[in-house]
Amino acid sequence: MDAHSTVALVRLADTLDVRVWVAGGWGIDALIGEQTRSHDDLDLAVDTVRFEDFVDALMQGGFEIDVNWMPVRLQMRRGDGAVVDLRPVSFGSGRCGVHESLDGVQYLYPRRDLTFGTIAGHRVPCLSAMLQLGFHLGYAPSEQDRSDMAALAAATGVELREPYE
Predict the structure, then answer these.
(1) What are the percentages of helix, strand and coil residues in the chain, rounded to 5?
(2) Tens of pLDDT along 72-101?
(3) Helix (H) or strand (E) holding 90
(4) CA 163 to CA 165: how far, in whole Å?
């Protein structure tokens, strides 16, 4: 998934008035302000209010559903190899969005942790460094995870926690 396709999908969401936040590897790169590695996919947290509208637009743009674990996750793939991994986040009247997991755990998206970064010179909404770090805890990290967290800490000053210390 290249920077151009990533920015184009974020812009598509904006055009449709769908609130999205770049997460995962591209989200880390957005916070750093430059691409640090190649990315297999684009992880997007998507507000559930217009989630279906975004999925419909992606399908009109040639994406097909590849993995359907709704209401937790929807992965879509296009013929050119572009992959987008959508995570529905529901915002009620509170200060946190909620993303459900397959095992019943609720992941919280505090509004204060919805921020902006830069991809290929374009300002994009993304998850904060603290939220990114939090989502990388609770499982054995891969070498890529360790590299991503080290780069995030170096660029943003976020304090790493076990198992990334």
Answers:
(1) 35, 35, 30
(2) 999 999 999 999 999 999 997 777 999 998
(3) strand 83-91
(4) 6
Instruction: Please indicate, yes or no, if residue 65 is contained in any of the structural domains.
Output: yes
Euclidean distance between CA atoms 109 and 131, whole angstroms: 8
Please report which confidence band the pLDDT of residue 139 belongs to, taking 50, 70 and 90 as the band edges. confident
CATH number at residue 101: 3.30.460.40
Identify which of 77, 24, 73 has the alpha carbon closest to the alpha carbon of residue 46: 73
Domains of the chain: total: 1
This prediction's pTM = 0.94
162 found inside a domain: no
Domain range for 54 is: 3-156
Q: Does residue 148 lie within any of the structural domains?
A: yes
- 52 and 86 Cβ atoms separated by less than 8 Å: no
Mean pLDDT score of the chain, rounded to an integer? 94
Residue 113 resides in a domain: yes
Tokens read off for 16 = 């449709």
